[in-house]
Amino acid sequence: MTIDRKPQILGTFIRARRLSRELTLAEAASRSGLHVSYWSKLETGHYKSPSPKNLQTIARVIDVRYEDLYGLAGYDTPERLPTFAPYLRAKYDLPAQAIGDLERYFAMLRSFYDIPPDQPVFPPKPKDNDKPSPTKTEETPDRRMT
Q1: Are residues 72 and 99 in the same domain?
Q2: What is the tens place of the pLDDT at every residue in 89-129?
Q3: What does pLDDT average to over the chain?
Q4: How far is CA 112 from CA 42, 71, 85, 131, in A?
Q5: Domain range for residue 76?
Q6: Both 71 and 18 in a single domain?
Q7: Which of 24, 81, 112, 128 shows the greatest Cβ crowding within 10 Å of its Cβ?
């Protein structure tokens, strides 16, 4: 029997994000209009399929894209994909440090290639000065044809 870890992963993410925003459960509940017990149960992985509407409300309160929460909850989001960290948490069982390392690496790639946050990192578009050098056949014409 396999254990579905999605509710626990979602709850851990929401709790960490709420705490990073320095919100108590009571403050988050007040801002969202959802009961404090709902937040508590959600953060402890009690709900296997939280309401998408509630996830949208929670996303607004903790300042994340709702697609991130949808991805962690296992919902399809055809319009946009979740950001990198929630995707990794939902798809792979990576430790938090590994996810942090990967996020820093992708941030470095974005900076190096001047990729806006709303654009995908891969495949990177070459910079103007990164144009490929001409191949040997382009440099020297074939003399046999003259």
Answers
A1: no
A2: 667 777 778 878 887 888 888 888 887 876 665 554 555 55
A3: 78
A4: 38, 28, 20, 15
A5: 6-82
A6: yes
A7: 81
SS3 content of the chain, % helix, strand, coil (to 5): 60, 0, 40
Long-range CB pairs of 55-63, under 8 A, 24+ apart, other chains included: 57/32, 57/33, 58/14, 58/28, 58/32, 58/34, 60/32, 61/18, 61/23, 61/28, 61/31, 61/32, 62/14, 62/17, 62/18, 62/21, 62/23, 62/28, 63/17, 63/21
Q: How many angstroms separate the CA atoms of 19 and 62, rounded?
A: 9
Q: Which has the closest alpha carbon to 6: 91, 114, 105?
A: 91
pLDDT for the residue 78? 56
How far apart (Å, rounded) are the C-alpha atoms in residues 17 and 11? Answer: 10
Rg (CA), the chain: 22
The arithmetic mean of pLDDT across residues 2-25, rounded, is: 87
pLDDT at 46 over 90: yes
Do 111 and 60 belong to one domain?
Answer: no
Say how far apart CA 69 and CA 54 lie, in whole Å: 10
